[in-house]
Amino acid sequence: MEITLWGTRGSIAAPGPETVIFGGNTTCVEVTLSSGRCIIIDAGTGIRRLGDALMARGDELDLVLLMTHIHWDHVLGIPFFGPIFRESTHMVVDGFTRGMQGLKRVFSERLVDGTWPVRFDDLSARIEPGHVLSKSPMELDDTLIQSHRLQHPQGGVGFRFTENHTSFVFLTDNELRHDGWVGTCLDDFVGFCRDADLLIHDCQYLPEEMEIRSGWGHSDLESVARLAVEAGVKCLILCHHDPWRTDEGVVKIIERCRGVMDRSGVSIPVDGARENTTFHLRG
Questions:
Q1: Cα distance between residue 189 and residue 216, in whole Å
Q2: Distance of alpha carbon 118 from alpha carbon 109, whole angstroms
Q3: What is the pLDDT of residues 143-173, one digit of tens each?
Q4: CA 255 to centroid of chain Cα atoms
Q5: Are 123 and 84 in contact (CB under 8 A)?
Q6: Residue 127: how many CB atoms within 10 A of its CB?
Q7: Is the pLDDT reported for residue 112 higher than 70?
Q8: Are residues 43 and 78 in contact, defined by beta-carbon separation less than 8 angstroms?
Q9: Which domains does the chain have, with CATH numbers?
């Protein structure tokens, strides 16, 4: 299983000279199974470059798009995803129950004076709703995919991939709290992440920033470090960088998170999510 990061920024794209190291595109992750099947997580602005890469690999594409939720920064890249303009593309949309609805709204003619010049119904690709993960785990080519409800306004879901005794967990837009909604407290996520080889988790804020941002649906470095330690994950990657966070600021978050790990006496590698980075998990 290979995991490639195409978009690592949160809330809004933040291109510029101060974000070149960790990237300015919003959330998009490519998961390539051992079978070669491509699974995409979210359609943030990073999906544009992923689309270019996929089209360069071949004409016929059979894709699965898993949506964590449908806030703007996770759907706005879909009109620029080249494969949807090809008849040879088949894409199933699954994950968040309203994922398909959110993608269609980007092309809506009914909102304001229209939001995009091309209608969803005019796209050449065959795009279909899945609605599997909302009911039960999904199995694709000997890979088990499980979902978990997120602590985030208007809801959302995170994912765990298990293949050949290796596991990858992706939890973005998730606020780790002891008093979260039923099923979304810190202890619930500890169980979901238990012994994961790779955990990529939202870490948008510093602890001192949470006082006025509590309830916004994002986590701070101390909470994420606590989750990684208690769950016994093998590697932690911090994602959904705040759009105002410069590369220097992200480095400081990483260093502070590593300090929390050191004080806990647990040795877990920690880094920040960087665009164009690929992780290789082998069982």
A1: 18
A2: 9
A3: 999 999 999 999 999 999 999 999 999 999 9
A4: 22
A5: yes
A6: 19
A7: no
A8: yes
A9: 2-280 (3.60.15.10)
